[in-house]
What we know:
Shape: globular
Order of helices and strands: HHHEHEHEHHHHHEEE
CATH superfamily of the largest domain: Carbonic anhydrase
CATH architecture of the largest domain: 3-Layer(aba) Sandwich
Distance between the termini: 50 Å
Structural class: alpha/beta
Amino acid sequence: MPHLPDHLLAGYRNFMSGRYLTESGRYRELAREGQAPETMIVACCDSRAAPEAIFDAGPGELFVLRNVGNLVPPYAPDGEFHSTSAALEFAVQSLKVKNIVVMGHGRCGGIRAALDTTSAPLSPGDFIGKWMSLIAPAAETVSSSTFMTASERQTALERISIRYSIANLRTFPCVSILEGKGRLSLHGAWFDISTGELWVMNKETGDFERPEMA
């Protein structure tokens, strides 16, 4: 019995004979000199919304953090385990990224779970429920709107959660200080899986707009 699923081994063979072959010099450079990406992406775990594929990024270009619902918790130096905060700290303080992009997406299961308060937890630990409670106030407000359809409520909360995460980013001193000095920029984006459309958050209004494509 193979130690990895067959489709992963087949994919690796294609990688070695394809992308790695054409970019082997770049990989050797990264191994020798280390990574120095200018952009961090906070994205969802969803297998349909991979940032490297969406932005056609090469090796070493993006520092990607993925979690359920692409959420950033508020700054909480309480001695507990904080994987998202740890990745953020490393990206900002060590890698010195210049941009942080919070990218949500359509049909997000985590957002759906935040809106559906009737479903039973997937496990006794209810880790997803606890995690998505970060946006509970917004979820309650959106859920109470009877003028929107279920899909409209879903899209609304997907985009609101991006603004929530950006607000939480600013609770981290390392982020707020560098942003104030103009050395770090925060961005929001939303990807529509079904159409491939990318919507970018207007920093002044908070609205999501389609960027002009040449």
